[in-house]
Amino acid sequence: MKLSFTKSWTVILALLALAFSAIGVTPAYADSTIIVNSTADNTTPDSSCTLREAIANADNNAATHAECIAGSGNDTILFHSSLGTATITLGSQLPTIADGAGLTIDGNNRITLSGNNSVRVFNVTGGGALTLQNISVTDGGVTNGSGLRNSSGGTVTITHSVFSNNRFGSGVENWGTLTILRSAFLNNTATTDGGGVWNSGTLTIANSTFSNNSANYGGGVMNNSGTATILNSTFSGNSVTYDGGGVFTWNGGASPPTTTIRNTILANSAAGYADCYNYEYGTAVLNGGNNIIEMTSTCASIATITSDPMLGSLAGSPAYFPLNAGSPAIDAGDDSICAAAPVSNTSQNGLTRPQGMHCDIGSVEALRFLIYLPLVMR
Q1: Which band of pLDDT confidence, cut at 50, 70 and 90, is reported for residue 253?
Q2: Cα(203)–Cα(221) distance, rounded to whole angstroms?
Q3: What is the mean pLDDT of residues 319-344?
Q4: Domain map of the chain by residue range?
Q5: What gap in Å lies between CA 38 and CA 80, rounded to an integer?
Q6: What's the pLDDT score for residue 329?
């Protein structure tokens, strides 16, 4: 008897399923792309898929909420184009992310998530993995990581995004692995330390801007017994009650902190306080070079230039400080740092590095204009 094409494939798939079952192998399922089509913040049974429901489905790898498709591994959450430019205001913290398979949330440069000045926006537990890209996280309002808290064992990547106006407990509190790329941390406040980021894990920052963040110590970043690597970034206009307007390193525990700063600008902190402060208690380690640190204090050893970096006004999104003509940052970077990951010859303003003889210090590359004069033959 001859089987039809459709029936043949049915038989083959059935045989494969039996074979997988016999040897204890579970067939792999495709990862899900879950589309959020509502700005509401609820889990109400209806026809709308909310962000809260989408995260629950993705983290549970199931159809916990029937309004959204089921999660199935390393999932991606997108937002329907009909939402336009929108803000989702939260009544409580979003579902905790614990799935090590990974979750990516992409706001397509249109979506803002607000903690409504009362709740934390994201929480990632040990083993959880979250990537945020093209999104804004604002108005978180709790201690210990108002915008996001990443526990030991968690992995978070923030790309081309904005953390702003988070208050009480830092924009991000990190105990795990945190990578920040081509992003901006603006106007975040901590009642203790680390206005932009408080770190006691492994932190990498590249091509990013920190401005107008405030804390007791470490207005931009507090590295507290962690490992922090800051490359081709700009810290300007951050403030502190005591010291370290841009970056503060402190040995606050059993593990000695290591802070590496290269090709970076730290400047314009609140008057009278150092842009960079390394508290030499115990075995705190500070490495770096090719930096502009306007007020160096205990970071003098890693400052190639002690000068006003001549920055322009904040522009772009995520916001950055352009380099004015004549800035000492132009052509003063270490090309090997610019070429290697995670800088990878890119910049926050989208220009390829280098534009001139060498790459620039800071988060952005200054555009060079070449003028060609015609040769007139007589």
Answers
A1: low
A2: 10
A3: 98
A4: 29-339
A5: 8
A6: 98
